[in-house]
């Protein structure tokens, strides 16, 4: 045998490294299913992050690439195959997002409209300003062609509205102001246009004139049976349980929050009890658990049945049917869908005599939701719901190894520990997402949950099930009374905890990479088998470090030209105490500022009369001109600086100033300015969002 030349001899260190990598990948074989929703989510998230809408050739290329990768995956070895399938799943996630976006395409109003609006009521809720709000379909607008008329519009009701009691199916007519769905109030902010696109909502607006009936609800009831049932049950519940407790009961039973007072909702948020308001895993689990226990107990009372039939499986089927009805009744929110899929997996496992709760069931629920509604990935409901569920399943799964030690504890202590642990784990898991989306942390949330969640499980939901069973016989009053007592206690706890000093910590918005990096690190730590899992904790630490270094724009300009905000020594200074209130609220929240618009307008920064406000932005002057009175101060020439006007400027002055009026801002969207060594760095919503199908 000829000797092998040194240059041809394999590197022992390199071979060892390759062997360790292969062994680490092979160790994941039992957990590959858990990576399916992660890969789909990465693909969907990447599609939503695009700034240019993909064309037909991109989708064709993606489909061909998926077919090639699926073929390669079948022939690749054990080590390479999962990596090939991971890339294929990412492409599938992107294709699903694109298919979903095109499938819901509907006309979007391209201009501001004022005139008669006709439509059928398909949703009743409340606006951000706590005004009644109607969503209409079968829309008719004066002098607007049918192919340009939005499929749905949403109108807030201002002024006296005593002429009509809104109900599902009622065809109404009103005189209203409509506009295309609004874009982000700052570059990189929440894009309502995207949400509206997936809801097929083509315009939003308001009316200050009375809403009138054009046709009775009976004529428009087709396709609204579930919605009509939901609103009928909501009204009946509120007849039995008055006040805020009744509105709370209606919200957790039917998903109807239209009667919830704004201050009550704020108290629930500031005490970290808002999750009790959303129909989620807690409610679905308590409801189906109560039905399962009741059915199993009733069937066990009949010995002939108990000895001859699998009553446990029959009770699981009954609980599954109750969960499906609850899902339909609630309107099918993301958290409710996730909860139903989880409960369904658990109950089917009971029927098949398999383990009911595992990370596989969480992965299955996430996969189904990402296939059905890829856009849900970007919402706080999806993120917080799965963060809590994943953390809880992992935590209680880890406790199984400590079963013998736990048996030594007093039996009465176990439920207390379970509630405390579940509240702490779920609170810690959802805290980053809550802080990122809502810019607040409820510092006493654990205390509020310990005082409220046990009562929700032991009294409120069982009483709700009992009321539903006894209602047809007219015997539900005691159950409604018990439910009312429990809900009033929860509202009392929320009010007291929210009113405590230091109850809320306001948090600055993170950069765009923080949440994805934090999520991937969290999931990698839970899912990966082997010592490499601790890399995930490193990713979480990096994400949190990036969050602490987050910075906010030195100046923000609203897309209407009606508000300017400058970062000053005491926080953001606003040019006006009123007007563009939603933009002002979001800017301050994203700054991690707990102030309101009125207080921010009197901070040190802007000077001058109300119609001509001026502030220094580094070496540049920013002027905000209000109305025609402000334009009179503009003059024929202007010096260096930024000038923002809230009315159209017909004759533009000569000079080096940068003038922005509503016409300019309609094209760019809101603007963010940052001070840099070379001058001002400008970023617009149009630059950040790109040209997507929901963007103008």
TrEMBL record:
Domain of life of the organism encoding this protein: Bacteria
N-terminal signal peptide: none
UniProt domain DUF4131: residue ranges: 59-211
One Pfam family it belongs to: Competence
Keyword Transmembrane tagged: yes
All copies of domain ComEC/Rec2-related protein, residue ranges: 252-530
Topology in the lipid bilayer: Multi-pass membrane protein
Subcellular localization(s) per the UniProt record: Cell membrane
Keyword field contains Cell inner membrane: no
Keywords: Cell membrane, Membrane, Transmembrane, Transmembrane helix
Transmembrane parts of this sequence: 32-50, 57-77, 83-102, 273-299, 311-329, 359-376, 382-400, 412-435, 455-482, 503-528, 534-550
PANTHER family from the UniProt entry: DNA INTERNALIZATION/COMPETENCE PROTEIN COMEC/REC2 (PTHR30619), RECOMBINATION PROTEIN 2 (PTHR30619:SF1)
Annotated NCBIfam families: ComEC_N-term (TIGR00360)
Name of the protein in question: ComEC/Rec2 family competence protein
Origin species: Tropicimonas aquimaris
């Amino acid at each position: 045998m000829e000797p092998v030349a040194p240059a041809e001899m394999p590197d022992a260190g390199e071979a060892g490294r390759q062997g360790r990598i292969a062994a680490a990948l092979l160790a994941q074989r039992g957990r590959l299913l858990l990576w399916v929703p992660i890969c789909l989510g990465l693909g969907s998230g990447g599609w939503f992050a695009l700034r240019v809408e993909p064309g037909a050739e991109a989708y064709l290329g993606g489909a061909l690439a998926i077919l090639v990768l699926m073929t390669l995956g079948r022939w690749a070895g054990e080590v390479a195959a999962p990596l090939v399938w991971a890339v294929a799943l990412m492409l599938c996630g992107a294709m699903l997002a694109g298919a979903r976006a095109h499938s819901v395409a509907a006309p979007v109003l391209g201009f501001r409209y004022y005139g008669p609006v006709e439509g059928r009521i398909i949703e009743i809720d409340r606006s951000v300003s706590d005004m009644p709000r109607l969503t209409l379909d079968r829309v008719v607008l004066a002098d607007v062609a049918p192919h340009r008329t939005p499929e749905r519009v949403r109108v807030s009701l201002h002024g006296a509205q005593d002429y009509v009691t809104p109900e599902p199916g009622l065809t109404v007519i009103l005189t209203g102001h409509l506009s295309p769905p609004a874009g982000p109030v700052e570059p990189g902010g929440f894009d309502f246009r995207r949400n509206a696109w997936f809801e097929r909502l083509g315009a939003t607006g308001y009316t200050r004139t009375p809403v009138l009936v054009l046709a009775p609800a009976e004529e428009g009831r087709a396709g609204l049976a579930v919605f009509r049932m939901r609103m009928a049950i909501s009204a009946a519940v509120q007849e039995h349980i008055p006040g805020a407790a009744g509105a709370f009961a209606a919200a957790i039973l039917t998903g109807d929050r239209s009667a919830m007072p704004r201050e009550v909702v704020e108290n629930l948020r500031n005490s970290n009890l808002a999750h009790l308001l959303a129909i989620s895993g807690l409610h679905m689990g308590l409801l189906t658990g109560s039905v399962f226990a009741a059915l199993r107990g009733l069937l066990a009372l009949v010995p002939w049945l108990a000895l001859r039939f699998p009553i446990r499986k029959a009770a699981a089927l009954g609980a599954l049917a109750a969960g499906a009805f609850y899902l339909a009744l609630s309107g099918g929110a993301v958290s409710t869908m996730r909860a139903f899929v989880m409960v369904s997996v658990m109950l089917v496992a009971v029927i098949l005599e398999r383990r009911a709760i595992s990370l596989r069931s969480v992965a299955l629920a996430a996969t189904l939701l990402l296939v059905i509604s890829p856009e849900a990935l970007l919402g706080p409901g999806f993120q917080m719901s799965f963060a809590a569920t994943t953390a809880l399943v992992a935590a209680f799964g880890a406790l199984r190894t400590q079963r013998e030690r736990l048996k030594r504890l007093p039996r009465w202590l176990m439920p207390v520990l379970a509630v405390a642990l579940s509240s702490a784990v779920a609170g810690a898991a959802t805290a980053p997402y809550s802080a990122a989306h809502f810019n607040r942390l409820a510092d006493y949330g654990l205390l509020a949950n310990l005082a409220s969640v046990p009562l929700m499980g032991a009294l409120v939901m069982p009483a709700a099930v009992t009321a539903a069973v006894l209602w047809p016989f007219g015997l539900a009053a005691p159950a409604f009374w018990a439910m009312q007592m429990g809900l009033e206690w929860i509202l009392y706890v929320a009010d007291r905890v929210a009113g405590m000093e230091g109850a809320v910590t306001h948090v600055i918005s993170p950069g765009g990479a923080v949440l994805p990096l934090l999520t991937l690190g969290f999931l990698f730590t839970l899912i990966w088998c082997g010592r490499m899992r601790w890399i995930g904790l490193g990713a979480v630490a990096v994400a949190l470090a990036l969050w602490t270094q987050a910075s906010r724009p030195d100046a923000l300009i609203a897309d209407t030209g009606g508000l300017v905000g400058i970062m000053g020594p005491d926080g953001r200074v606003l040019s006006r105490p009123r007007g563009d209130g939603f933009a002002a609220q979001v800017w301050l929240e994203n700054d991690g500022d707990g102030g309101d618009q009125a207080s921010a307008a009197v901070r040190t920064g802007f000077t001058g009369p109300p119609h001509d406000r001026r502030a220094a932005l580094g070496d540049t002057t920013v002027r905000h001109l209000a109305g025609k009175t402000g334009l009179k101060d503009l003059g024929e020439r202007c010096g260096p600086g930024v000038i923002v006007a809230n009315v159209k400027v017909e004759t533009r002055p000569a000079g080096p100033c940068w003038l922005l009026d509503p016409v300019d801002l309609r094209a760019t969207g809101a603007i963010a300015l940052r001070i840099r060594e070379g001058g001002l760095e400008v970023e617009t919503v149009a630059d950040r969002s790109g040209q997507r199908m929901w963007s103008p």
